[in-house]
Every structure is written in structure tokens, then in C-alpha cells.
Amino acid sequence: MLSFENDYSRAAHPAVLDAVVRANEHLYSGYGSDELTAQAKAKIRETCGAPDADVWFLVGGTQANQVVIDTITPAYAGVVAVASGHPNVHEAGAIEYAGHKVLTLPHHNGKMDAGELDEYCKTFYADANHEHMVFPGSVYVSQSTEYGTIYSKAELEAIAEVAHRYDMPLFVDGARLGYALTATGGDMTLEDVARIADVFYIGGTKVGALFGEAVVFTKHNTPKHFLTRIKQHGALLAKGFVLGAQFDALFTDNLYFRIARNANEAADRIREALKAKGYQLTFDAPTNQIFVTLDQPTIERLERDIKLGFMEKADDAHTVMRICTSWSTTPEEVDQLIALL
Amino acid sequence: MLSFENDYSRAAHPAVLDAVVRANEHLYSGYGSDELTAQAKAKIRETCGAPDADVWFLVGGTQANQVVIDTITPAYAGVVAVASGHPNVHEAGAIEYAGHKVLTLPHHNGKMDAGELDEYCKTFYADANHEHMVFPGSVYVSQSTEYGTIYSKAELEAIAEVAHRYDMPLFVDGARLGYALTATGGDMTLEDVARIADVFYIGGTKVGALFGEAVVFTKHNTPKHFLTRIKQHGALLAKGFVLGAQFDALFTDNLYFRIARNANEAADRIREALKAKGYQLTFDAPTNQIFVTLDQPTIERLERDIKLGFMEKADDAHTVMRICTSWSTTPEEVDQLIALL
Amino acid sequence: MLSFENDYSRAAHPAVLDAVVRANEHLYSGYGSDELTAQAKAKIRETCGAPDADVWFLVGGTQANQVVIDTITPAYAGVVAVASGHPNVHEAGAIEYAGHKVLTLPHHNGKMDAGELDEYCKTFYADANHEHMVFPGSVYVSQSTEYGTIYSKAELEAIAEVAHRYDMPLFVDGARLGYALTATGGDMTLEDVARIADVFYIGGTKVGALFGEAVVFTKHNTPKHFLTRIKQHGALLAKGFVLGAQFDALFTDNLYFRIARNANEAADRIREALKAKGYQLTFDAPTNQIFVTLDQPTIERLERDIKLGFMEKADDAHTVMRICTSWSTTPEEVDQLIALL
Amino acid sequence: MLSFENDYSRAAHPAVLDAVVRANEHLYSGYGSDELTAQAKAKIRETCGAPDADVWFLVGGTQANQVVIDTITPAYAGVVAVASGHPNVHEAGAIEYAGHKVLTLPHHNGKMDAGELDEYCKTFYADANHEHMVFPGSVYVSQSTEYGTIYSKAELEAIAEVAHRYDMPLFVDGARLGYALTATGGDMTLEDVARIADVFYIGGTKVGALFGEAVVFTKHNTPKHFLTRIKQHGALLAKGFVLGAQFDALFTDNLYFRIARNANEAADRIREALKAKGYQLTFDAPTNQIFVTLDQPTIERLERDIKLGFMEKADDAHTVMRICTSWSTTPEEVDQLIALL
């Protein structure tokens, strides 16, 4: 059975696993206070071109979203996101559990429009009753988005400009940041992200790690006593060095970007084939998530041999399904998939 | 200066105030454990035709919404409401502060459509990823709605039927229940509400009381240790008998409905006049809130003599304003208003 | 039946009630934005000798404690209180519901010792693991305390000094502040409280009002968007002017202090009588709460004619009971009580 | 430098690491829905002798405590624990962040006394004001405790009996369960724990795993929609199979207990040596945590060569330090330590 179900089905890149195995030869102090973690943070800061950045390692994406949004959003405020944003839809209410409302804007192929963000805030502050409402207190976007699309540098800068105008930090969810930054047609580097965003994370779980997300506060702007806040959320890993070892490997010799690029290349080939065979791509997106609108018979035929991901019902007869490549997808798997289309 | 700004500008109906003054002649035990409160509860139960109802008195509407929604909605779930619902828009995130997401449906002149509620739930449970999402756990509607419209008995029954099918209690916010039940063209009684809803409240703040909302759990279905939950929310009034005295007065000789009817009669007259003079009513609504879409010059002209309420911007040139009558509006005030239109 | 059960059994002082009745002659804007409320705030600021103070009106004591502690305590921190403190014992976990731990010190007749507070903080910051613990983030004391005792000016200043040294605001719960400031032997004025505390409240519920607590942030140090935070807690009263009217009356012609003094005078007489008759006073306290340790037969005898309050079991044979006077206690009631002892 | 700092300094037992490496050869479905996880759960159920047990894997100890306590404790209630309990002291307020108070009993060498638990509950329910207080809603104990001591079977049964009498589930924190169950003089098996407790967890982080705790609801008593609750807490691991692989290895051929026993044997030897050399053991405890009360010069001398753990100040001149062995401690390390004492 071929699987293009998601990008977190395989444990870890061999070099990452190897780093964990090698870490087993030493003893490390706990909670990320070790030298391996320090080294990984230094490499990330350097790759970000951000000597003033604070780097923290967390275990997973929803956890990172919850901890970051909760700590950067004032108590009287919510986080602004597009309606299709992961925290609004697929995190079981983790943000609301932490006491904050998710304030939603319409999405455009998964993306936020800077003008609409501006309009939202303008309307909010113009409302005579706004003190009875939830203030927009931070902005959440994902790069790449839930629909596999990416922001251009200009688009993200425009959002940041609006966010800062209304005194909101901009948070970029980078669960799939590697795939976004190595997509064909993308114009953004990690340095750009670190320059534009106030805080973002570099997803490891979906790009080669066993687990782990590197949260980067880009301007020494870590919320006060952040370690305590992490612990309070039940999110502090005792053996922090296991995270350090993995990110140290991912940020050695450009591994993170090399393996991310692999997923995009595989996806590009699949997209070509889909188009050639007349399939309907749901979104025009350049990263490792390909959404196709399929009728039921086609789904049944494909699922005999291929594990696909479910996205949503399109209408009574059609469903949006996801073909997801990853850092570990092989050319042979792509060949097999294309042959089955 | 004439004021039609809202329905909570005057302290209380004289009979209600008088009941409080008379209560001052006695000592009462605390926290609603007194006999005056017991008597008021008995009268409400009787008027509801619901001998199995549990009645609780809270101080205000947002408080009632927060306490009720928090206690009837499971921890893994949110409350379903229309997007224009008060807890979604004008309660400063009180529901999210209590840890629950507000799951929104589109509104139709402020009202929820039972079919759309059904569709929402069906889609939710059909989603392969729904365990990663916020379960619909309770249903919130308001009667009358934020736009002054009312549900017919059939409409509310249909919503209750869907809610119960998906194992959700139906909560009716009755901040303006008096106005809803005495509106021209309405077909529902308090008994109907008590029969159809699992929990609702009878708004006192906007219908003759200094403050106070009577929360009714209609079928001995009060959440466990509800008094403790109220206290935990900071919502337990020490001198509960002040609430008891007021509701005892409101439910003596049908006072609550008589004074509510007064507001609707005033509103009916104003609506007639508005239509006659060619004003554009924003919604077709029969209760004490009249929304009119006005251009800026008209607003400025009217606000020279009349305090109106702001609802929302309609477009660059127009604003939706509210003319709100209340239990205390006099025929003379209506005459003056009409003369100024 | 004579009642010395508590100090919130009678609705309100006639002058306060009268102010509410008079307020009924006018229409006021909502949520405390009216001129009556403004006037009451000005009078309080003046009596406090604190022109820079911000005054807010809330409905009840637990609510005030929850809203204030939640808004002044950082998210990574708890509030330090003595173990007998009201929020730690008798508020149904309202502080923890708001996400904060109550960090407890031993009490000394209900009071906190400044030296112990210092020791607690010193030990906390000296602990190598303190980032895994709850930071002391604010300090809560009550004046008078749950046991009727009061802090001297020097004692409260010492606590404030320690609190500020560790970057914690000092919050004084004044549910019974009137009784504390007019107690025989007390050396503190309202001005002193306003000078020493960062935030405190002047209790109305137990000193002549129907309900209401005046929260005073003494140095323009109101937490950001406090009105929104109040609303978020479900604690914003629609008819704020009902609070304004009451406090305006209480702070006219020194009424608040005059009626508070009445309770202490009654209590002083009762204490005299108790001592003369050989009763055992549980605490040496000068305010309106008198705690006596009684054996079961005495309790049964007294409760035939007098409603008393239950405090706690002392041992198998004895119970600590409370005799509570109030602003409304009459000399005749005191005579009757003494005759029954 | 020799390290006896803690039991989470080394990544993982080779067999556990090897299981993760082997898992890398396959693709697995996400969030613990894979067959490797199912197999690990089956092995745990079998070792527990509890065919009706539900097993869930979480990442860390504080997270497990937060998720379990939050989901088993009613909203109106707190969790009863001894004052020295980990959630009360060293979890940064994670329980209060989740809205629950930790209700504390005194500890006896880290342990709860069943009689005191009974007394606490009896007093609570006898208190006339208990509805204004936090109900005792669940019971938390740790096996082994924070001081390395263990409960006998009879002691734990007594606590369970009291807990159930007051309608509280008993939760056993087993972060170091392996060490507790293989301690010299212990009389409890994993089956006993599964029989006595309502929910407990088997700590992996401190007993051979990279990370991971196996939460066991012993009687098909998993809280409703527990997966959603886990996600809501940000605690759902995408690659759940990495947890499955590790626990599958730990529960193959009795590995978990064999490696736990190693730590206790090392600790027994160290204890012997300490006693022989006249050191003062702070607690009489049989597991892998040895607490010694040391004067400053001794600490300085030892810390030249050995990393120790800080526990707490004993007095001005003495500090309680921890010598902690683990599953990975070698006989040679023990020899070296003893030579240095």
C-alpha cells in the first residue's frame, strides 16, 4: 500500500535519528539547559541571520500555537486568523481553552489579506461598543497555509505592517516552513521570516524530526518567564537535549532545506501528472500538499492502492482529498503514484 | 433630551423598587437562601407551568450567559450560536475566557435556522478529523434576538429537536424575553419556552428590574453543585433576597408581561411612523428594538434631540442606528419622537 | 428571633435606598458611563486624598477579588495570601478558576506577617528550581481580616515594602474596610490605605449598600482595558448608575464611616458583656465580627433565640461561632442579645 | 565529572532507541492510531492484568498530571494531594492554569495518610459553608513519592477506600513507578496498582524512554472524548507511533522492570556506603532517589567531582541534596561515587 496520507508518517530522517543515537553516549542536564541545545539554538540564530533571536524548542504544533498565542496575546484580546487557520479548525479549541477567542477573517486559498486585516481593525476601533468586544491582540498566519499555498515576501510584509500599526505581534506558524521556503516560485528566505515576523516556528515534526518545533522570538522579545509558561502548559520536555540533538542535525549542512526541497520536487511531479491526466486541483499551491477534488468512484479506485488524506466534502458527489508528499518521499513512490492515477 | 438609547437607562419599575424598599424592613439569610427568594421562584415556576423547573437568580446577562454556557457545555465542546449572537460579539470573550469556543452559524435577521444547525452537526460528525475539532456541545439562541426579531414556536421547536438529536441542551437567552413574548404576531408563551428549552433566562435588567436575570433549568436538570459554580464565577450575590424581592414583584399580577407589552406598543407606533415617513427599517422585527438605516445628515439631525443607539456601519454613507423603547417609555415620549422624525 | 448571623442581612441604609429611588427619576447611560457614577468616584477620590486614583464599581466581594487578582497577577504567577484568606477558603476556587494559584503563608489571627512574606520570597528566588514553580506575583490581605482583626499602619506598610521589593502589587480586600477603619484602637485612615496599597476596595455590600464594592487603583495603575476585563468576567453591571447612586450616598456627609462605627460600638458592648460573663473570645479583635468558642449546650441554648454564624469546629466538644454586628444593629438588639447570653 | 543529578540525563535504553530506529523503516498513521501503538497498549494491559484498561500515551509527567487531573476532576472541585506533591510544588501552576485548586494535606515523608484524607473530607462536608468552598474531587498520590518513599499495598488500598467513599477517583502518578515497584521491601505489583487505582501512569521518561508516560484508565473509565481533551491541551503527539515503539520495547521481556531494578540496586549500595560513612539520610526511602542533609563544606567538596541535585535548604548551614541513580547507572559509577564520599 502506497501512502501519501500525510507528512508525519515516517519517524525521522536518518541523520536526525543518528544524532539522537549519538546523544545517548552522554549525560545532559535537563529541560533544555544542555550544551547540545545551546548549539542547535546558535545554528538556528545564524541561519536566521538574527543574532538577537531567542530560540525555544517545543514538542508539537498545536502545543506551539497554544503556548505562543497565549503568551503574546493580551488577556483582553484574541488572535486574528483566517477562518481556515489551524488553531481555528483543527486544534480542538486549544486557543479558547487558554482563554482567547480566535477572531476570523475570510481566507483566500488559505491566506490572509492585509487589506482585510486593516479593515477589520479599523472597524473594530471605530465601533462605539468596542470595549465590550474582544480586542484584536495578535495575528496568526501559517507559512505554508493549510491549503498548501504560500505568502510572498510582499504579502507577509504588508500583514506585518498592519499588525504593527495596531500594536499586534505577528506570529507565523511554520509547521511546514521548510516546504514553504523551498517551493518553486517562493521568494522568501528564513532570514526574511525572521525579519518580518515577531515570532515564528520552524516545524520539525513534518520536516525530518521525530518531533519538535523551534520557536523563534526574533527580537529578544520572549514573553517574561517563558520557561515557566511552557511548564505551566505541560509543554516542557524533561530531556530537552533530544530536541536539541534533532535541530542540531537539521541545521547542519543545510539538511532542513535539502529534505524539504525533496518533498516539493515530488509534489511538482505529481501536480504535472495530475494536470496532464485532467484532474481538478482544488487550489493552485506550490508546496507538498496537493488538494484534488475527486468524485466518489475515483476516490474508491485510488484508495485501493493509495492512502490519501481527507480534507472536506466539496458537494454531495465530490470530496477534496489531499495527496501529501514529505521529506522522505522517494522518486519510486512518485512513479508508482503517477502510474495509478 | 429625549432618550431611546436602550432599555436599561431607568433604574426600575416603581413596584419593583417598592418591593426592595419593603424588603428593607426585614433581615434575610444570605445567598438566596431566604423565603422571599423561595417565593419568587415558586411564582416563576407556576407562571412557567413547570413544577419541575429549578430557578436561580443571577445579576446580569453576560454573567448568565457565561455561567450557563460554561456549566452545560462539556469541556471538549463549544456552544453553537449565530454569528450575530451576543456571546459571540458583545461579551468581551466571556465564553472563551471560560474555555469554550463559540461555534458560529450564519444568522437570518439574527435568527438561527434549524436546518443549518442540522447540516453543521452532520458535517461535523462526518468529518474524519472531527476528534481534532471542537464538538458542538450546546445551542444558544436569544429570544428576542440581537436584531429584535423573534422565533416562532415552530422555529424554536425545530431547533430544539435538532439540538437534542445531537445530544445538546438548548439554551434560550431571554434578556428581552418579556418583549419577545408580548410582541404583536408572536405565538409563544412562557410555558412554551419552558417546555421547549432545556434552560433559559427571564431578563429582569431590561424589563423593569434594577438588575437580575432568572435562570430556569426546566426539567430538574441544574448542573451539579451549581451554587458552587456560580460562586466560582464570582456571580453569587450576597444579598440574594434583593433579587428575590424584585422577581417576586415582577411575577405578581402579571407585572412582567404588562410592562413588557408597553414597550412593544410604543415600538409599534414608532415603526408605523417611520414607515409612513419613508424611513428604511433594517430588519422586519416586532419587538422593542427598531433598527433603521440612516444617512449621516439624518443621524446628525435626529441626535440633536434624541439619544439613539449605534449598531453598526452599513456602508460609507449609512449607519444602522437603534431606536429602543422600554417598559418605562411613555406615550408622550413616543409622541415627541414621532414629531422629530 | 434575634439575628447576629452576618452583616449582609439587611438590604441597605435608608439614605442609600433613597438615593436609588431618586435615581429612578432620571435616565442614565449604561455601564457606569453616567454622571452619577462620575460624581461618586470623585467623592471617593477626594475622601482617599488620592487625586490620581482610578475608581471602579463592582457588584460583590468574590467578584472583586477575582477580577482584581486576575488582572494584577502575571500569568506565570500566583497571589500570596494567608491560609485563612477568603479567596483561599471561601470563594469556591474563583482564583484558580481564573488560572492563578493562591500561595499561602500561615496566618496570625488572620493576619500576614511581613517577615514571613519576605522569607517566602527569599526562599523562592533562592530555589534553584524556582522557574518550575509558581512565582509570587501579587499580595492579598484583608482589612479587617476573616477573623475580625486589623492591621496597624506599620504592619501594612511593612507588608507593602516587602511586596514592592519583590515587584508585587499589594491588594487590600476591604469588604469590611469601614469596620476596620472605625475600630477602637485602629490607627489607619482611608488616606493611609490609599497611600499604602496599590489597589484596594471599599466594601459596600457589608456596610450599608444593597450591593457593591468600590475598587480603587491608587496610582493611575488600572490594568489596561480594565472595563473589557470586567465584562469578560461577566462582572459589568448594565445599570452602573445603581452602583454610582449608592456610593454617592455612602460618601456624602461621611455616612460610610458613621454607620460602620455603629457596628463597632455595638460589638464593643457585646465583647464587654461576653468577657464579664466568662465567655472565651477566640480572637482578640476590635471590629464587628466577634468569634466565641462555645460548647454544644451553650450553642443550643443561644440558638433558641439568636441566629449566630458558624465558623469552624474547634474540637469534638467546641465550635467557633460568630456574633456579627452591622451598620444596622440597634442598641435594643444589643440589649436583647446581652440579656440572653 | 560523575553525574547523579537526576534520572533523565541519558536519552534512552539501547533497546528503546533501537525500537525507534526500527520504526523508521515503516510508515505509520498519525496520533497513535497505528498498529505499533496498539501492540504496546496490549502488552501494558496484559502486564497490568487488566483487560478492561484503556491505555493512552502522553509525552511528559507534568502534561500527564495536568491532562488527567483536569479531565477526572469535576469543574466545581479540586484535587487532593499532599503539600509536597509534584503538581502542588514543581509544575508551575499547571493544575490551577487548568482551573482546579490543589487541596493539600500534610505529607509524611512525602506520603498521604488515609486517615487524614478521611478527616479532611469529613470536615469539609460537615462545614455549613462547604458549598462556598472547593469540593475535594479527586485524589493524587505519587508512587514513588517526591522523597523517594513508597506506599505499601495496604496504605494505597486505604487511600483508595477513602477516596471512593467520597466519590473521588484515585490517580497515581507513576513517573517513577518502575523504581517503586522494584524497590527492596516493596509489596506491590503493577497488577496491584491497576486494581487499586482508577487511573495511573507508567513513567517512561525516567525509566528508559526518550520521553513518554503511559496513562492507564484501569476500568474502561476514560473520560469522554479524551483524545479531544488531549489535543485541547496541546498534548497530542503527531507521531504517536514513536511513543508506541518505545513502550512496546519497554514492555517486551520485562525490560521496564529489569532496568528499574538496576537503579534501586545501585541506590541500595550507595545508601549502605552513606550510612557506613556516617552521612545523615534525610528520609528512609528505598528507591532511586537518596536525599542527604549535607553541610556546605561537604557539598562543595562533593560537587568538585559529582553533579548532585538540589532539593531544599534545611537550615542556614545545611542543605538537602539528592543523589539520584537511574536505569543507566553502572556499577563503576557507583564505585566511583562511593570512593568520593
Automatic annotation (TrEMBL), chains A, B, C, D:
- Keyword set includes Lyase: yes
Name one matching Pfam family.
Beta_elim_lyase
Query: Would the keyword Lyase be found if you checked this record's keyword annotation?
Result: yes
> Domain named Aromatic amino acid beta-eliminating lyase/threonine aldolase: which ranges?
30-295
Query: Which terms does the UniProt entry file under GO BP?
Result: amino acid metabolic process
For this UniProt entry, the molecular function terms from Gene Ontology, in alphabetical order, are: lyase activity
The protein's matches in InterPro entries, at most eight in alphabetical order, are given as: ArAA_b-elim_lyase/Thr_aldolase, PyrdxlP-dep_Trfase, PyrdxlP-dep_Trfase_major, PyrdxlP-dep_Trfase_small
Query: The organism sits in which domain of life?
Result: Bacteria
Give the SUPFAM superfamilies listed for this entry. Answer: PLP-dependent transferases (SSF53383)
Cofactor(s) recorded for this entry are: pyridoxal 5'-phosphate
Keywords, ordered alphabetically: Lyase, Pyridoxal phosphate
Family indicated by similarity: Belongs to the threonine aldolase family.
For this entry, the protein name equals Amino acid lyase
**Organism of provenance:** Bifidobacterium callitrichidarum
